[in-house]
Design brief:
alpha+beta, two-stranded antiparallel sheet, 24% strand, 412 residues
Length: 412
């Protein structure tokens, strides 16, 4: 149901707020199976199976998911048609590592001829400077994302439908400073309008809403607490159960500052629009655990060999599970990571990185000094225009002025 209704979201946002609230509440109370489809429950059961299995079984379960993705691609994806079927992790490493530019240049060759009716268009936000259009799997990709985050955020006691203060995303209706979004039961704060002069108004509304959690971009949440600190009349006095930060890098210093100021534990994660791999913290560790039930992650040196020694830095390479319409196999994410000496999440064996390199927290300044997260401004927007841009670069030397350099892509 979620995939079918997604195109109608823009019309929903145009109706009066009272109707939005009523429709959003009714939709939010529907059972997950009805909202997200059967794969939501299937994925939650998969998580439970992995968490309850011994290390040898986890390895076999992950291999099964990997073989399903790869051997299906050999049968139906033109780019892999000449590759031999595989039966082991060792044979898998004979597959080529593919770059974003290679997929852009040969897009149709990476699309499966199977499940053509299940293709949904998506694109990257271009945070690396190279946007890309691709396909996600209807009935699988979005339900999987929702099920995964319901589980992951649950480490802080989150349950679907609980009140969230959201500081991220697209501009709000009518360039509002904040708005209530009934479908998610969240109070969204605009990253574009927020500054130290209006932070008191936001805090008054937040006190009425009584959020239990905050969800945002690290740069946007950092700006939020800076606005409070800059206004002598403003103070943060709301109890929180958790803070969820994603889509950007999070330094140890920022993690400590945000957690101490807002008085709650932080969960941060590494993911990407391609939905191939997902790494996340626990409330007690800032390391990134790449969950073996989500996708398959590798760290490769400059010779393309797997890195095994803790402390070494290499390229992060991803293989997706569950997207059969356009699988990502040994996909170079463009990011670099440092291998950790840790090799498990609780008792679950998994691939662990101490840190990710290549993701920043860029800020632009408006002419009145207001700070805006660049992720909120453009990289997190997934605009359809990105499919016509090969590369882009943003440069700011003066507040209120932003230079956008574009390398034209196909059909620009």
């Amino acid at each position: 149901m979620e995939d079918a209704l997604y195109p109608l979201l823009k019309f929903y946002k145009q109706v009066p707020p009272t109707i939005q609230d009523a429709v959003g509440f009714a939709y939010r109370t529907l059972p997950n199976r009805f909202r997200f489809g059967t794969f939501y429950d299937e994925y939650r059961k998969r998580i439970s199976l992995f968490l309850e299995s011994d290390p040898a079984m986890v390895r076999q379960l992950q291999l099964g998911l990997l073989l399903e993705t790869v051997n299906r691609a050999i049968s139906y994806v033109p780019y892999y048609a000449s590759m031999p079927r595989i039966e082991s992790f060792e044979e898998f490493r004979g597959f080529p590592v593919v770059s974003k530019s290679e997929i852009i240049d040969n897009a149709s060759a990476f699309v499966s001829t199977e499940f053509s009716s299940k293709r949904l268009k998506a694109n990257t936000g271009g945070s690396s400077g190279t946007p890309m259009e691709f396909n996600i799997h209807a009935g699988k990709t979005r339900p999987k994302e929702r099920a995964h985050f319901d589980w992951f955020w649950g480490q802080c006691g989150y349950a679907p439908g609980e009140r969230v203060l959201m500081i991220r995303g697209a501009p709000l209706t009518g360039n509002a400073l904040y708005e209530y979004q009934s479908i998610k039961n969240c109070l969204a704060v605009s990253c574009y309008e927020l500054n130290s002069s209006n932070i008191e108004e936001v805090l008054r509304e937040a006190r009425r809403f009584r959020p239990q959690f905050i969800h945002g971009y690290p740069s946007a949440v950092k700006n939020f607490i800076q606005c409070i600190a800059e206004n002598p009349a403003a103070c943060w006095d709301l109890p929180l159960r958790g803070i969820f930060l994603g889509s950007e890098g999070l330094s140890a210093g920022d993690r400590a500052e945000i957690g101490e100021f807002l008085g709650a534990q932080i969960l941060a994660w590494y993911g990407h629009s391609e939905c191939a791999i997902m790494g996340g913290n626990s409330p007690h560790s800032s390391e990134l655990y790449f969950f073996p039930f989500y996708g398959y992650a590798e760290l490769l040196n400059e010779d393309g060999k797997p890195i095994h020694r803790p402390g070494e830095i290499g390229r992060l390479v991803a293989t997706s599970f569950d997207n059969f319409v356009m699988p990502f196999i040994r996909y170079d994410t463009g990011d670099y990571g440092e291998l950790s000496s840790t090799d498990s999440f609780r008792s679950l064996p998994c691939f662990v990185l101490s840190k990710i390199e290549g993701r920043g927290q860029d800020i632009i300044h408006l002419c009145d000094g207001t700070r805006v997260s660049l992720t909120a401004f453009i990289f997190g927007q997934h605009l359809p225009e990105f499919s016509r841009i090969r590369e882009m670069q943003l440069v700011q030397d003066v507040g209120g002025e932003l230079l956008l350099r574009i390398v034209r892509g196909k059909d620009y």
